[in-house]
Amino acid sequence: MHSARFYPFTHSPLQCHFNASSRDFVVKEIPLYEPSGNGEHLLIYVRKKGLSTFEMLELFSQILGIKVRDIGYAGLKDKAATTYQYISIPRSLESRLNLISPILQEHNIKILNLHAHNNKLKIGHLKGNEFFMRLKKLLPHNATKLESTLELIAQSGFPNYFGDQRFGKEGDNFQSGKAIIQNSLKIKNKKMSNFLISSYQSHLFNAWLKTRLQFSQILHSFSPNEVLNALAQDDFKALHSPHYTPSLIKTLQKQKQHFVLLSGDVMCHYPYGKNFICEDEIAESQRFMLKNTAPTGALSGLKLTHAQHLAKDIESHFLDSAIKANGTRRYAWVWAEQIKGKYIAEKAQYELQFYLPKGSYATIFLESLLGQQNL
Description:
This protein has 375 residues and is of the alpha+beta class. The protein has ten helices and 15 strands.
């Protein structure tokens, strides 16, 4: 089982119930670009209920008589939800779509519209996702707390952990991914093998992010000498470093945000842009708090932009050189936008809508908001 996530927020947990279902959880993909209107591919906007993206792709593959790899998609969407997303297929198959529509509807899939386009849809070709979540059994006093906490987190942002969906029902997909890269497990299905390896990369990222947030909380909670004593404990081996001094700790403590920046952190302009190395953590923290930049964490692999200096000392504990898949950087901290909420007192329900950048999990935002994990 992957380790529990750590959140730096101080608000007390809010009691309510969320059930990920097609009625209470809706995800709408926001495309990166509009269809061109011509080309050899077909962009299809679909609605699905109770199916994972992989299950939907497999169904399209079977009834169209094509390989799954011939179908493009921008991102994976939740199974226990009503989700709207784009897929692409070769345009030569357009005439078959009317014939297969009844079969799709039997499996709770509906084609909403389609347009010609000049390229196959690829992973990451989306801006983000809009979410709707219905929270239940929320008492009035907790609804008031929820709305004030929403305002705080809208301003502060939240840690960009990978959610439980990334790790499978038992939470141990990453162990299979690790076994694959160690050559102790063989998976014939390349797409599944790659997914399991990415789960291991995600596990390492989450572990790094948890460590950085714990480090930040230690910095905010103790005097410089007490911080040094805490960092020397065996529980924080990834934080052991000869470079920390009372003077440096005091400088780091000038930062007020939940994620304390270190020299050598790989930053990225937000919500998109180029990576760069943090040279002046105090100056950069001001831009971070203004939502102009955000720190990134490593998805371990080849061609990775590595952290430097102090940040490297910690990050190196969460990299695995045996991973031969390409590595990349992922925002460690993100912000929800377009937040709207409505409390329905007679039903003790709260209807919550918001937008997140691509790759961010609505369930992680909700955990941050409610102060509880494994909703």
